[in-house]
Amino acid sequence: MKTGKKRIAVLLAVSLSLGVLLAGCGSSGDSTSGDSSEDKPVLVINEWGGDYTDKKYGVYFDEFEEEYNCEIQVVSPIDTGKIKTMVETGNVEYDIVNCDGDFVFRGAEEGLLEPIDYSVVTNTADWTSGVYEYGVMSDPYYGAITYNTSQYTEDTAPKSWADFFDTEKFPGKRAMLKQPTFTLEAALLADGVAPEDLYPLDVDRALAKLDTIKDDITVWTTTGAEQMQVLASGDVDMSCAWTSRSMPAEDAGEPVGVSWNQALLYDCGWVVVKDAPHKELAMQFIQFATDPQRMADFMNIVYTGSHSDDARALVGDDRLNTIGFTDEQMASSVTMDLEYWANNYDEVNEKFQAWLIS
Amino acid sequence: MTTNLTAVEKKPLAYRFARLTWLKWLILILPFFYVMLMLIIPAFGMLSRAVIGPDGFTMQYLIKAFTGETSRKVMWLTLRTGLFVTLFAMLLAYPLSYLACRTPYRLVREVIDIAVMLPFCVSMLARVFAWRILLQDQGIINQALVHLGVISEPIKLLYSTTAVIIAMTSMLFPYMYLSIHSVMLEIDQNYLRAAQGMGARPFRSFWDVFFPLSIPGILAGSLMVFILSLGYYIVPALVGGASDLMISNLIQDAISTTLDWNTGAALSILLIVTTLVILAAVAALLALLRYRKKPKEAA
């Protein structure tokens, strides 16, 4: 009896440990090419997730799957640290990433990206901006002055960053982004720096300008959802917020309004991960997703823009005005220098963080 | 209790190892390999980046992490937050645990136990967001205080160090409660009766008899809460203000945003070393206390 029990225990222990080992080996090998049921290739796209990503199914993903006889698997959220791990360990699971603009440069420098094959991606040939060696910018958006409409109307609202920093003429609590991007540009524009002279940023000057309203900035936001929440709840009267967040909120009847002047234009784009399992298919997807008609369809349901003039021409003026991508709105905006940020983010961020806790 | 009377006879370590059957060895070795494979080796791989830069061995990252103004200041802020959280968790957990332990009513005890354990079933993120709603300017706490006339306009609770400490205390409080409670339950109530039988007033019997016996629980709980608190970063990021940076926020920035893994590893080492130094200091303190107590007992 006693030995019987012992034997069962041993069997259990051995089978458990074997199971763990086998499971460990199995999953490390081929989790991306787990297409044993069918022979269709699986294109893995790393996305932000949420409602915004879901809308891409109707415009891009479903149709691409059909046309190219493949399967698209969306993984979210985006973690650039994870991408670095994949490339360094030679176990790349993602094909495409829809990343923040500066990662196009940062990722390229770290050796994490494939150059875009412009013999396949030809839709971007006549774009005047947003086309780079290692990425195609697909979803430009703004960081703009956004106010609570119960405190300010369209006429009385701050209309420039100088107004935003003027606490006498425009009293009220403010929120800004807890990151150097957008925040330092806003400070320098408020201090009178011309948009074309912004870069390289005079970080010390920007921080000195921020010092003048540090006590009035009651919230330092870390997420897009938070930007809207503090405005809508009345915790702050004005904020630097992403228009991809504030415009849907305004449409949904939240008490938020946007001042388009000096909106800071930032980008979000498609990149292909180094040694991606389906490199060619990934390039074909980028060509597919930069088609003007599809981009126009997408602009009709989301609040980001496009670098393609053809795509914008296909969207009605009313809609363009809502999402902030009419010619005038784009002309009054300030384009942020992605390359500057890719090269200097670490250093500037360190100064910014030190300033925050000072 | 009779534990001190029938103390297990101590055999040499080698003797005890020799007596292990192979099945027991297996039970020891499996977790050992698991921890080595999944934790220790990858951790060393990551931490080695603190001294191995793109051009080979370098101390620049470690020197920067240990002497840089930002990282030192943030480390200090982290320690300060941890100390406050530990202190408040202790102040809350001790009386509650005492009540649960001493109450003659079973219902009270069970309600306290459930109330302490229940939040464990709710995801931490959900609890952080609940605190955001409670603490905001238009939140229930501020509104109630305004309506009661305690304050004339909302005080700033959310996005402050106060909010970080309130939220983190609520997250970590159960660990403190469980440590103290388990030790308190072990205290023989007869000691208290004996003390009172000898004429000690209730407070005296608590302070001279019960409290000293419960100190191990306080120490274990404090250590656990303090060390866990050093690694928090979601709570400070979501309810803290501009200056509520924890060392983990810096590490996360380095690993995920700036992809500067050398700095991330160096900052991790700063955190590990600081934690170890504190553990060593506490251990030394305890050893000293025990050493000073011994001669008395012998006399």
Q: Short description, anyone?
A:
The complex is a heterodimer of chains A (358) and B (299). Chain A has 358 residues and is an alpha/beta fold. Chain A has 15 helices and 13 strands.
Tell me the overall shape of chain A.
globular
User: Runs of chain B with pLDDT <50, length 5+?
Assistant: 1-6
Principal-axes geometry of chain B comes out as globular
Order of helices and strands of chain A: HEHEHEHEEEEHEHHEHEHEEHHHHHEH
User: What's the gyration radius of chain B in Å?
Assistant: 24 Å
Termini separation of chain B comes to 23 Å
- Measured between the Cα atoms of the first and last residue of chain A, the distance is 71 Å
Structure notes:
The complex is a heterodimer of chains A (358) and B (299). Chain A is built from 15 helices and 13 strands. Chain A is globular. The model of chain A is unreliable at 20-36 (pLDDT under 50). In chain A, helix 2 (50-67) packs antiparallel against helix 11 and helix 4 (101-109) packs across helix 15 (338-356). Chain A is of the alpha/beta class and 358 residues long. Chain A has helices at residues 2-29, 50-67, 80-89, 101-109, 161-164, 180-190, 203-211, 224-232, 243-251, 279-289, 292-299, 309-313, 317-323, 327-332, 338-356; strands spanning 42-46, 71-75, 96-100, 113-114, 131-132, 135-137, 141-148, 174-177, 217-221, 238-242, 256-266, 268-273, 334-335. Chain B is mostly helical and 299 residues long. In chain B, 75% of the residues lie in helices and 1% in strands. The longest helix of chain B has 38 residues, at 261-298. The two termini of chain B are 23 Å apart. The interface between A and B is medium-sized, with 31 and 31 residues.
